[in-house]
Amino acid sequence: MFIGEERQNTTVILSPEGRLDTMTAPELERKVWRLDGNIKMVILNFSMVTFISSLGLRVLLQIQKIMKERQGKMTIKNINQSLLPVFEMTGLMALLVQEEKMVLIRKEKTKTKLTLSLSGKVDDETAPVLEKELYREGNEFTTIYLDCTQLNGISSKGFEVLLRIQKSLAKRNGKLVLQHISEPVQAMIETTGFTDVLMQEEDLFVQKDAAETEALLSFIGRLDSETIPVLQQKMRQLGQAVTKVTLDFSKLTYISKEGFRIFLQLQGDLQQKSIALEIKL
């Protein structure tokens, strides 16, 4: 196994590549054992790790123990998406990863678009880390997407960072788009009044029940092949007592032909169920 190494004062970043299993995991542990006593932080960059076995997980716990004995710390960054279920099912996500509160778990690039997937919280401590990463990567992209599926919090400092990044991108005719926003983050965005600013093309429905028999679904962004399933899912989740549905399309920026077709189909379904439909444009 190749293990890249980068030192920054008392911090070392180790970047293993490939499988972390019975054959290769001990090699990573030996590398940590050989670090000099001045190293107080070991960051494991898992962006190139494609598999981890039970022994690999035990080695991670052992490395964490080694660093604690040295009054240091170990954490993991850039976990490959395919490895996340392993960490979550074993309960090691919080133990090994969440110590740094916000984790960049995935990074995807095209010629003009960068997508970063985040986990944890963007707070006063981690917001500068995100800002540094976005500035470092953002210079070559016109669009940056932040996948917030596993993000469970943003502080005022976090919002300041997002707004600065968005302003910087706008100067180059670029944009910052939040995707797949979790309910806690959605509530924070609404409370701060940044809904229109940070979610221009977000495929997100905000559901607010005016009463048990009424439902309001506000759609922000594009209604296309990617976001139609979200609309369908929200409609399926309506309670049986609902007699009226209001769809707020006032912030819709685009609707595809398929979007029109699905909308008409849903309209027919509601009529069959004797559910009134109101459209706000």
Count of beta strands: 14
Mean pLDDT: 79
Question: The CATH topology of the largest domain, please?
Answer: Transcription Regulator spoIIAA
What form results from the Cα inertia axes?
elongated
Helix/strand class? alpha/beta
Quick summary:
By secondary structure, the chain is an alpha/beta fold. The protein has ten helices and 14 strands. About 3% of the residues have low confidence.
List keywords for this structure.
4-stranded mixed β-sheet, Transcription Regulator spoIIAA, 10 helices, 14 strands, 281 residues, alpha/beta, 3 domains, elongated
Outline the structure in words.
The chain has 281 residues and is an alpha/beta fold. Helices cover 37% and strands 35% of the residues. The protein has ten helices and 14 strands. The protein has helices spanning 25-33, 54-69, 84-89, 92-97, 127-138, 156-170, 183-192, 195-198, 228-236, 257-272, and strands at residues 3-8, 11-16, 18-20, 41-45, 49-52, 73-77, 102-109, 113-122, 143-154, 175-179, 204-211, 214-223, 244-255, 276-280. A four-stranded mixed beta sheet has the order 1-2-4-6. Helix 1 packs parallel to helix 2 and helix 5 runs parallel beside helix 6. Residues 200-207 have low confidence and may be disordered.
